[in-house]
Amino acid sequence: MDAQSRGRADEIDPADQWVINPRTGHYELRLSQSAPQSAPSVTTPRRSTPPRTAPSPTAPPPVVPKPRRGDGPPGGRRGGRSRKGGSAGGGGRRKALVITGGSLAFLLVGGSLAAYLYYDHLNGNLSVTDIAGAGTGGFKKDQAINILVIGTDKRSGAGNEGYGDAESVGHADTTILFHIAKDRSNATALSIPRDLIADIPVCPTKQPDGSTKNVPASKGTRFNNSLGQEGRDPGCTMRTVTGLTGIEVDNFMMVDFNAVKNLSTAVGGVPVCVEKPVEDVDSKLKLPAGESRLSGEQALAFVRTRHAFGNESDLDRIKTQQAFLASMMREMKSKETLTSPKKFFSLAEAATKSLTVDQGLGSIGKLTDLAGELKNINPKNVTFTTLPVLDNPAEKVKATVVLDQGRADPLLQMIRGDVSLTEVEKQEKASQQAADAEAQSKQDALLQGGRAAPGDVRVDVFNGGGPKGSASTTLNWLQNTKGVARASNLGNAPAKVAATRLEYAPNQADQARALADIMGLSAAALKMGSSDAGPKTPMKLTLGPDFKEAGSPLTAPAPQQLSEDVQRIEADKSVCVK
C-alpha cells in the first residue's frame, strides 16, 4: 500500500481520522480506511506525555490528529447540560457524570494515545539492519555527523519490475556522504561515483540465523559492488567509504526506487528545470523545455536518466540527481509543506516506508533526534559536490573512473576538518559565536604552553591508513631531520583511523605541543588521555589517510583553495539541467 492510500490522507482531514466505535462508544484513531474498529475499549498508555514523532531527517514531525471541536461521545450536548423534564434524580446525574467524565478523560488522554499509536505505526514502517559495527555507533550531539545515504538499484516494490535488471540484488547505485558540521551551521553532501575503482575491505555481515559471515575483500573493483555483490550489506559500503575518504561514518540510510516516487508525490511534486525538451525512451522521461513539477514515475525517470543530459555518463547523472535533491530539500522546507497536515502525514508514511537504517537510527525517536540536529541548517549553506575522479587510464573503452588524488585530497581534508564549502553568513552563526569561541579556546589551549626539546620527545609511530611505508619514512625524517631521537616505528596500527591523531597523557602535553609543531598537526588531531604516563612511556602517533608525506602540514585548506573545477551545487539555487 502506498502513502496516499493509507488512511486516504489525500481525501480526509486529519481530524476525521477519529471515528466512533459503535461497539464501545469510544472515539478511536483510524489509521487505515479499511481497518475494522477494534472491539476492546481504549485503554490509557502508561506514558502521560506523547513521544516525539518526526519521521525522518528530511520531513518535519507529523501532526497528531486531534478531535475537532464539538466531537465527543454520543448522546452528549455541548455544555453538558441535562434536558429539562428528564430524570432529575440519581440516574440522570449518574448519566451526566459518565458523559462528562468520559469527555474529560478523552481530552486528557486522547492526544497521548494518538501520538502513541502513530509513533508505533511509523516504527513498524522502518526496516532496521545490523551492520556488525561498521559505523561509529551513532551520531553525537556535540560532534560533526556523517550519514551515508545509499540509493540502491534493487527493483523491489510495485511497478518497478520493468526497470532494466529485474534480478538486481541491489547495488550502491547512488551514494552520498552527508557531513553535518559540528556547529550545525552548514552541511556538505559528497556524491561517490558508482563506477569508481575502489578497494572493498573484508566485510563482517550478520546472517538471518544471527551468525556473522566475513565476505572476502575485493581490490580494484567498482564501488557499487560494495553492496549486494556476494552478500555484502550496507556496512560493507560504509567500510569502503571510510577507507576511501578517511571519514568515519556514523550511520547509514538506504532507499530504493519507491522512495523517489513516494516522497516526490507526498511533497506535492518537485520543481525541476531543463534547458531543452527531453524524450528518453530508456527512462521514459518526457519533458518540455523550462520548468516542470515532477512526482511519482516521472520523478524517478528524471533521476534515473543517463541519456538526456550532458555526455550521457554517470557523472552527469550525479549532477542531475543533486539538482533534484536540492529542489526537494527546498520544497520540504517551504512554508506550503511545513503548514500542511496532509503533507506531514504523507511524508511521514513515505519516508518511513522507504527507509532501511542501522540500529543507531532504528526508531522514530532516534530519527527525531537527528531531524532536530538538521532543522536549522539553511539550504544556502548545504553544498552538493562530487568526489573528483579521472577516466581509468587502464581502459581503452572508458567505463570506469579512478580517484583524482590531487583534486580530491583538499576536498576530503576540508570535510575531515569540518570546513564549510560555503561562506556561512555571520548573522546565522551569531547564536553559536559564544559556544564556538569557548570550543576554540579549549582547542587553542592544547597548543599553548611550553614545548619539550625535540630530543626529549618520546613517540611510537604507527601507520593507520597513510601511504605504504609512511611510518618508516616519518621515523627517518623525525630522527635525522628534526632531532626526535626517541621516536620508534611500530609498523601498521591495529586498526585504521579516519585521520592522523596523536594520543598523549596529561603530563606529556609539552611533548605533544612540540611534536604538533614539527608535524604540522592541528589541535583537533591531539587526543589527551585521562591519566599520567610513566617517565619513559612514549606517546602514540597514528598516521591516517590524510597523511601524505613527512613535513607536509595536515591542516585543512580554505574553500577558495579548492580547484575551480571541483563541482559544487548550493541547495538554495535552482539549476537548469543541460
Shape: globular
Our estimate of the beta-strand percent is: 15-25%
Q: Helix proportion of residues, in percent?
A: 25-40%
Strand order of the largest sheet: 3-16-11-4-5-6-17-25
Query: Structural class, from helix and strand content?
Result: alpha/beta
Protein architecture, described:
The chain is an alpha/beta fold and 578 residues long. Helices cover 28% and strands 20% of the residues. The protein contains 12 helices and 26 strands. It has helices spanning 90-125, 234-245, 257-266, 296-304, 314-332, 335-338, 341-354, 364-374, 405-416, 433-447, 470-480, 509-519; strands at residues 18-20, 27-29, 127-129, 145-152, 172-180, 187-192, 197-200, 203-206, 212-215, 218-222, 251-255, 270-274, 278-280, 285-287, 290-294, 356-358, 382-386, 389-391, 401-403, 458-463, 486-492, 501-504, 526-528, 539-543, 568-570, 576-577. It has an 8-stranded mixed beta sheet, sandwiched between helices. Strands 21-20-24-22-23 form a 5-stranded mixed beta sheet, with helices on one face. Strands 15-12-26 form a 3-stranded mixed beta sheet. Helix 3 (257-266) packs across helix 4.
Compact summary:
The protein is an alpha/beta fold and 578 residues long. It has 12 helices and 26 strands. The longest helix is centred in the first third of the chain and has 36 residues, at 90-125.
